[in-house]
Amino acid sequence: MGLLLGLLAAVSLFVGINRLSPGAVLSDPQALQLLAVSRIPRTAAVLLTGASMAVAGVIMQLLVRNKFVEPGTTGTNEAAMLGLLAVTLLTP
């Protein structure tokens, strides 16, 4: 499973609106900049978000002692969306 996650994360680095190939990263400085500024942070954010949701799910299962509880059933996603909306509205 970890190998599949690593493979998909590597593929995610080369998917986007601008074409980017592994060969271009080695030879083109603009491709390397695109990778460093846009693609790596995006992929890291997605991986960290998934990992944090998994940890939140485990914590919720341990707190309520119910193996069927997940963050989506207890309102964690809605609270995160409310926080995102509040930050967007209050700090333009």
Structure description:
This protein has four helices and no strands. The protein has one domain. With 92 residues, it is mainly α.
Structure described in brief:
The protein is mainly α. The protein has helices at 2-13, 22-27, 29-64, 76-90.
Helix-strand blueprint:
Blueprint lengths: L1 H12 L8 H6 L1 H36 L11 H15 L2
Report the span from N to C terminus. Answer: 40 Å
* CA-based gyration radius: 18 Å
* Fraction in beta strands: under 5%
Count of discrete structural domains: 1
Q: How many distinct helices?
A: 4
Mean pLDDT: 87
Write out key terms for the chains shown.
92 residues, mainly alpha
